[in-house]
Amino acid sequence: MSAEPAFLLHRRPYRETSALVDLLTLNHGRIRAVAHGGQRPGSKSRQRLQPFTPLFVSWRGERELKRLMLMESRGQTALLAGEGLLCGLYANEIATRLLPLELAAPEVFAFYSALLEALPTPANRALALRRFEWALLETLEATPRFCTYDGGALDPQTRYRFDVASRAFVPAEQGIEGRTLRYIDQGDWQPVGLASALKAVMRAALAPHLGATALRSRELMLDLARRRQR
């Protein structure tokens, strides 16, 4: 097959000198492949297979586990550190967990590319992450329904929480105002004051798909926050 754009999501040792990698590709979504020599010190495969590096890749194989045939850089690695790095690791982790193998997800690829451009700038991180999370939910056909469980309109004065079973919202004293949820539904996520509500909605919508195992990247974020408070 011809080479296509990709990013490394996850890499781990495989046998003696190879690596087992998960890649986010433009046309084929997430693929899993063996990179021969990917763990050998000094190998070109190991040097190129780095997180946040734009790649061109090609592979062979009809089964779920492919064999990488070509790995070439197509741009500069995003230079991430601190919170920006942890946000990038979070994006890689949830994409690896959520995307089924070989499910085409061009919008996820596009928003991931935009996310890497945004992460070095603190003011741009949160919104870019929310856009990426939304793209993942759309691919899974799991976006929230901004209505009541029976399809009714949200009351601007009532507070709601996300209901996993219906993917809609039910009244809750400690929930999010219906007015705020309506703003989120409109897709204009720029207004000041939406950030915390938007994050809460995304986290609630993603939770049932991520499962019970804690996200390693989220634990690292919490650890960083605790250190800053000292």
Question: What characteristics describe this protein?
Answer:
230 residues; alpha+beta; elongated; single chain; 8 strands; three-stranded antiparallel beta sheet; five-stranded mixed barrel
Within the largest sheet, what's the order of strands?
1-2-3-5-4
Based on Cα principal axes, name the global outline.
elongated
How is the quaternary structure best described? single chain
Q: Could you tell me the radius of gyration in angstroms?
A: 19 Å
Share in β-strands = 15-25%
Average pLDDT figure:
91
| Proportion of helical residues | 40-55%
What structural category do the secondary elements indicate?
A: alpha+beta
Q: How do the SSEs run, as a string of H and E?
A: EEEHEEHHHEEEHHH
Biggest sheet architecture = 5 strands, mixed, barrel
How many beta strands in the DSSP annotation?
A: 8
Q: With helices defined by DSSP (H or I, 4 residues minimum), what is the helix count? A: 7
Low-confidence stretches: none
Instruction: State the separation between the terminal residues, measured CA to CA.
Output: 53 Å
Keywords: DNA damage, DNA recombination, DNA repair
Family: Belongs to the RecO family.
Domain DNA replication/recombination mediator RecO N-terminal: 4-69
InterPro entries: DNA_rep/recomb_RecO_N, NA-bd_OB-fold, RecO, RecO_C
Structural notes for this entry:
With about 230 residues, the chain is α+β, with helices and mostly antiparallel strands. It is about 40% helix and about 25% strand. It has 7 helices and 8 strands. The strands form 2 sheets. The chain has a 5-stranded mixed beta barrel. A hairpin with a 3-residue loop joins strand 2 and strand 3. The radius of gyration is 19 Å and the shape is elongated.
